[in-house]
Amino acid sequence: MDIRPLEEKIAFLQRHVEQQDRAMLELSREVARLSERLARAEARLQRQSAGEEPGPPADERPPHW
Prior knowledge:
Structural class: mainly alpha
Number of strands: 0
């Protein structure tokens, strides 16, 4: 029985797991960044609705109009 195919398969699976780990770490960091941006946006909206921070005028058209 030749052990070489099993060694190759293990090497492939180890590389695959390492790639998945890197992808998961990158996605985790992206989720953390987006969560922080969302928290800042929510805080800003709360300040605007409380009148602490001015928002855009209600009748102002977006720049693409």
